[in-house]
C-alpha cells in the first residue's frame, strides 16, 4: 500500500500498470455511464452484456444518482464535513467532492483506489474549494488500517466521517471477509459516522447471467449478492430511512435520472454508527 502523491508518480510507471488486454471494472463502468475513459476490450464486453442484460445500464446510471443523493443528505441534513470514498472509480460528473462542497464548501474528501487507470486520472479528482480539501490515496481496501492511517493526513478521524463504498464490495469474493473489511474501517471511525453502500444484487436471472459473462471475460471478478447480504453490512448500525432498498428508491429527488419506481438489480443503504 502506498499513499504516494499521484502528481509525482512517473507517467511511465502508471502506464506500465494498465492492462488493456482484459476488461477492467472502472473502465467498464465508465463505458456504461457514457464516459470516454475505456478501451475496446471494455466496450466489447459491455456490448456483450447489454445483449444479455440491458438493465445493467439502468443499474449504472441509478447508482451514480444515488451517490449524489446520499452525499447531499450527509453533508446537508446530517452536517458531515468529511468523506472517505473507497473504490473511487474513474471521475465523471458529480464526484463526491463536487457534490459535498456544493453543499458545504469546507468539506474534506479522501478518495481511495489502487487502480492504475484511476490513478492516471486522479488529477481530475484533486480539485477543491479554497475552504475544503481533496486528496487521493493509491491504497487498498484489503488493508483497512493503512487506509485509515493515510486518510488521517487529510481527515480528522476524531470527528464523524461519511464512509462511501459504492459498487466495490462485489470484488471481495468471500462475504465474511467483505463484512470484516467494512467492520475494520468503521472501527477506526467515531460515533456519528455513516456508512454508504450500493452494490449489484443477484435478484434476477439477467443480472446473474451478466455477472457470469463479466467474470469469464478475464476481468477481476465481481460477485453479485443477495439483498440480505447487502443488509448485513449495516447490522451494527442504525439504518437511515428508508433502509436497504433498490437504488432508485432511496430518497428520490425531482429530476433524478432514474425513475424511483424503476426496478433495478442493485440495492443500497445508509447507516449511522452509534
State the helix count: 10
Number of strand segments: 8
What is the beta-strand fraction? 5-15%
Poorly predicted tracts of residues: 1-10
Distance between the termini: 30 Å
Q: What is the percent of helical residues?
A: 25-40%
Oligomer: single chain
Report the order of strands and helices. HHHHEHEHEHEHEHHEEE
* Overall geometry: globular
Please state the average pLDDT score.
Answer: 88
Characterise this structure.
The protein is 38% helix and 15% strand. It has ten helices and eight strands. Helix 2 crosses helix 3 and helix 3 runs antiparallel to helix 9 (205-215). The chain starts with 10 loop residues before the first helix and ends with a strand. The model is unreliable at 1-10 (pLDDT under 50).
List keywords for this structure.
disordered N terminus; eight-stranded mixed sheet; 10 helices; 38% helix; 274 residues; alpha/beta; 8 strands; globular
Give a brief description.
With 274 residues, the chain is α/β, with parallel strands linked by helices. The protein is built from ten helices and eight strands. It is globular, with a radius of gyration of 17 Å.
Spell out the blueprint of helices and strands.
Elements: H1 11-17, H2 25-32, H3 40-52, H4 55-78, E1 82-86, H5 96-103, E2 108-113, H6 116-120, E3 133-138, H7 144-151, E4 162-166, H8 175-187, E5 194-200, H9 205-215, H10 227-232, E6 238-239, E7 245-246, E8 266-272
Parallel strand pairs: 1-2, 1-4, 2-3, 4-5
Antiparallel strand pairs: 5-8, 6-8, 7-8
Amino acid at each position: 500500500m502506498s499513499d504516494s502523491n499521484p502528481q509525482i508518480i512517473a507517467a511511465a510507471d502508471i502506464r506500465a500498470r494498465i492492462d488493456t488486454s482484459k476488461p477492467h471494472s472502472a473502465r467498464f463502468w465508465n463505458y456504461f455511464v457514457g464516459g470516454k475513459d475505456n478501451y475496446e476490450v471494455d466496450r466489447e464486453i459491455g456490448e456483450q452484456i447489454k445483449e444479455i442484460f440491458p438493465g445493467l445500464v439502468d443499474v449504472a446510471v441509478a447508482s451514480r444518482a444515488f451517490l449524489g443523493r446520499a452525499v447531499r443528505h450527509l453533508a446537508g441534513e446530517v452536517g458531515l464535513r468529511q468523506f472517505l470514498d473507497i473504490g473511487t472509480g474513474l471521475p465523471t460528473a458529480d464526484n463526491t467532492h463536487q457534490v459535498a462542497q456544493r453543499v458545504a464548501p469546507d468539506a474534506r474528501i479522501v478518495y481511495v483506489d489502487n487502480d492504475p487507470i484511476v490513478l492516471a486520472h486522479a488529477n481530475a479528482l484533486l480539485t477543491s474549494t479554497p475552504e475544503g480539501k481533496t486528496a487521493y490515496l493509491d491504497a487498498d481496501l484489503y488493508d483497512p488500517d493503512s487506509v485509515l492511517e493515510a486518510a488521517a493526513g487529510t481527515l480528522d478521524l476524531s470527528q464523524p466521517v461519511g464512509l462511501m463504498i459504492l459498487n466495490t464490495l462485489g470484488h471481495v469474493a468471500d462475504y465474511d471477509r467483505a463484512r470484516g473489511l467494512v467492520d475494520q474501517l468503521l472501527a477506526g471511525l467515531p460515533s456519528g459516522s455513516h456508512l454508504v453502500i450500493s452494490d449489484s444484487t443477484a435478484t434476477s436471472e439477467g443480472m446473474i447471467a451478466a455477472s457470469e459473462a463479466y467474470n469469464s471475460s478475464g476481468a477481476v471478478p465481481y460477485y453479485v449478492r443477495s439483498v440480505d447480504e447487502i443488509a448485513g453490512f449495516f447490522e451494527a448500525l442504525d439504518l437511515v430511512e428508508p433502509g436497504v432498498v433498490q437504488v432508485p428508491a432511496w430518497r428520490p429527488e425531482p429530476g433524478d435520472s432514474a425513475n424511483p419506481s424503476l426496478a433495478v438489480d442493485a440495492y443500497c443503504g445508509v447507516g449511522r454508527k452509534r
